[in-house]
Amino acid sequence: MNLRLSCNRICSKYAVKKLAAKYGGLYEAGHKRCTSCEIYLIWDEVHCPCCGCVLRAKPRNAKARSKLLEMVNQKNS
Ligand SMILES: [Zn+2]
Ligand SMILES: [Zn+2]
Q1: Confidence (pTM)
Q2: 65, part of any domain
Q3: Among 30, 51, 65, 67, which has the highest number of CB atoms less than 10 A from its own CB?
Q4: Residue partners of 5: CB distance under 8 A and separation at least 6
Q5: Residue 2 lies in a domain
């Protein structure tokens, strides 16, 4: 039994060239990384179109996110 989702090479259609890193963070550019396929994708969905695993993406606005967490923590305390 294989629980690991495997790469079907569909991802290559959505792959981002590594050169894009030159222009700033790939995550910031809206790209996501599939750890299973080991590739950066231009893809809006949460899951990889190829293997179906969850894509890694940093939040667009890290500051807003930390502020939100701060507020939540204060509310709870
Ligand atoms: Zn793949
Ligand atoms: Zn994948």
Answers
A1: 0.58
A2: yes
A3: 51
A4: 36, 48, 51, 52, 53
A5: no
Tokens of 72: 């939540």
Structural tokens at position 16 = 């981002």
Ligand nearest to the CA of 56: 2
- Residue 30 C-alpha to ligand 2 middle, in angstroms? 16
Is residue 4 one of the residues assigned to a domain?
no
Q: pLDDT per residue over 8-29, tens digit each?
A: 999 999 888 765 555 566 666 6
Q: 22 C-alpha to center of ligand 1: Å?
A: 23
For the CA of 35, the nearest ligand: 2
Cα-to-centroid distance, 50 and ligand 1 (Å): 5
Query: What total of structural domains would you count in the chain?
Result: 1
Write the CB contacts of 11 (distance below 8 Å, at least 6 apart in sequence): 34, 37, 39, 41, 48, 49, 50, 51
